[in-house]
């Protein structure tokens, strides 16, 4: 049963009822807990919607050659940003609003996503979406798409040669090309041994998931926080350095292609 | 809880079956580790996780939730720290087959330990 929606709000009465509505469980967005836990440890509040698990059937747009009803998934990703802003502004002293109270929106917002969520991230970072939501950096994890709009913010593309769901040749590389055409800072990370499930629960390499989180965080440190050195880490060197721990020179494993255009 | 103990063995094969297409599509077995990978580093913060219900009025209310991971060090001197926000979008099936369970069954059945 749904609450009535306020005419001037994207969301219904949930703010007042947040405490009673909140559920405590670890069994949510289960496939990404390792990744997002590690990403948050670098100093980020990370929000992940549960919507559109099998498609956005409440707002269905099916794009050619794509799974049905994912064309508007990006709107859900953007709505999470709106929700977080609303919570920060309206949550009062409610202790349940703590995660939202600690968000610093003055530096803008970062977005990332995997597979169909990668497509959502690409769409959210293009057109007016990025500027409308103050999105300043994005990271694509094995994004699935046959449509390649040009992102308007720095975009890092992760893919893998063993990925037969979103092959680099037909998806990852065209996305990187779109970012190059747009003239925004970008990079292509095409790992030799990695398949489609690098970020999620089906990946058997927990260290690999944490490496993905580490270099994703590095991109956000450089282009979102604008703190390329922090917590004793040199995030810029992690990305752009040439040492054995840098992303393209051994720090993230074997690479078939790894290019960065800062 | 006794009912959950009975149902979980029944659900597990179903979840594995549902995730099978994704595993097949992934191609050859993924190596357990990339032998060239160095050890990954974690950031300095401990992390907490909360799930919120934000009923957006969609047709599937069971999915109207978001999970938030956030730095949660209890050090009082860091209580006023703020952090940037990242919106993460999951892949199809939410990265696994578990959420499909909530479509097929009740939440209580899928997440029996939920308070």
Task: Report what the structure shows.
The complex is a heterodimer of chains A (about 260) and B (about 120). Chain A has a 5-stranded mixed sheet, with helices on both faces. A two-stranded antiparallel ribbon of chain A has the order 6-7. Chain A is globular, with a radius of gyration of 18 Å. Chain A has one domain: Alpha/Beta hydrolase fold, catalytic domain (Rossmann fold), CATH 3.40.50.1820. Chain A has 9 helices and 8 strands. Chain A has helices at about 20, 35-40, 75-90, 100, 115-125, 130, 170-180, 205-225, 235-240; strands spanning about 45-50, 110-115, 135-140, 155-160, 185-190, 230, 235, 255-260. Chain A is α/β, with parallel strands linked by helices. Helices cover about 30% and strands about 15% of the residues of chain B. Chain B contains 3 helices and 3 strands. Chain B has helices spanning about 1-25, 100-105, 105-110, and strands spanning about 45-55, 65-70, 85-90. The relative contact order of chain B is 0.18. Chains A and B meet through helix 2, strand 1, helix 3, helix 4 and strand 2 of A and helix 1, strand 1, strand 2, strand 3 and helix 2 of B. Strand 1 (about 45-50) of chain A pairs antiparallel with strand 2 (about 65-70) of chain B, so a sheet runs across the interface.
Topology:
The complex is a heterodimer of chains A (262) and B (115).
Chain A: H1 18-21, H2 33-40, E1 45-49, H3 73-90, H4 98-101, E2 109-114, H5 116-124, H6 129-132, E3 135-141, E4 155-160, H7 168-182, E5 186-191, H8 206-225, E6 229-230, E7 233-234, H9 235-240, E8 255-261
Parallel strand pairs in A: 2-3, 3-4, 4-5
Antiparallel strand pairs in A: 5-8, 6-7
Helix pairs in contact in A: 2-8, 3-5
Chain B: H1 2-25, E1 47-53, E2 65-71, E3 85-89, H2 98-104, H3 107-110
Antiparallel strand pairs in B: 1-2
